Automatic annotation (TrEMBL):
Gene3D superfamilies membership: Trypsin-like serine proteases
Family to which the UniProt record says this protein belongs: Belongs to the peptidase S1 family. CLIP subfamily.
A Pfam family annotated for this UniProt entry: Trypsin
One MF annotation (Gene Ontology) recorded for this entry: serine-type endopeptidase activity
Domain (Peptidase S1): residue spans on this chain: 1-212
Name of the protein in its database record: Peptidase S1 domain-containing protein
């Protein structure tokens, strides 16, 4: 998701092992097969990748990363930053929306041609942890790290190919605005258990600090 004209928020596991020159950002697209777009998309190259300093794939925690673009995106009707929450933000946790390019079936490789969405409620972290502990692969001693939140309901879930996509929830002030509270990270199968999403609130301080290091009007630099 776009959080600043020159910064994209995603998960560390989706870009770990890749360099900036391996990546391209295509903003404002919802259907890659639609040649006659009503709203034009924008292509950008990536200047730097920044993985969370606490990212640990083996322990499954702090799965957050930023892409810093060489050239800022132009803000238009279909290309704009998402709002990020603070710890004091009050939002509706029962009707959140996850979007992604996954193909909808666990284990399928590649991505789909159409951006998809699913309505999901947040799931209490303790309840989510108990569900995960029933999975033999994780075991009864599994602890859900505080850098994650959970969301999902019966047969509704994100899946393979959706990693790095946003989970947004509506504010409770009737403004019609949404805030991004999660980033699709991992799960056990698709639709059987709640999915784990990197918590934007937990990572907010890191996101702000790293974003400040790459202002859109300043020369690019490396961390």
């Amino acid at each position: 998701s776009i959080i600043y004209p020159n910064i994209i928020l995603t998960t560390a596991h989706t870009i770990s092992g890749l360099s900036a020159v391996d990546l391209r950002v295509k903003a404002g697209v919802w259907n890659t097969t639609n040649i006659l777009e009503s709203d034009k998309h924008q292509d950008r190259t990536v200047a730097a990748t920044v993985l969370h300093s606490g990212y640990d794939k083996s322990k499954v925690q702090n799965d957050v990363a930023l892409l810093v673009l060489n050239d800022p995106l132009e803000i238009t009707d279909n290309v704009a930053p998402v709002c990020l929450p603070s710890r004091d933000t009050i939002f509706n946790s029962t009707d959140c929306i996850a979007t992604g390019w996954g193909v909808g079936n666990f284990g399928n490789k590649g991505i789909g041609s159409v951006l998809r969405m699913v309505h999901l409620p947040l799931v209490d972290s303790n309840k989510c942890q108990e569900e995960f502990r029933k999975v033999p692969k994780l075991g009864p001693n599994f602890n859900l790290h505080s850098s994650f939140i959970c969301a999902g309901r019966d047969l509704a879930d994100t899946c393979t190919g959706d990693g790095g996509g946003p989970l947004v929830c509506p504010l409770l002030d009737d403004s019609g605005k949404y805030v991004q509270i999660g980033i699709t990270s991992w799960g056990i199968g698709c639709g059987d258990l709640p999915g784990a999403y990197s918590s934007v609130i937990a990572a907010r301080e890191w996101i702000d600090t790293m974003s400040d290091a790459f202002p859109a009007t300043s020369p690019r630099q490396s961390l």
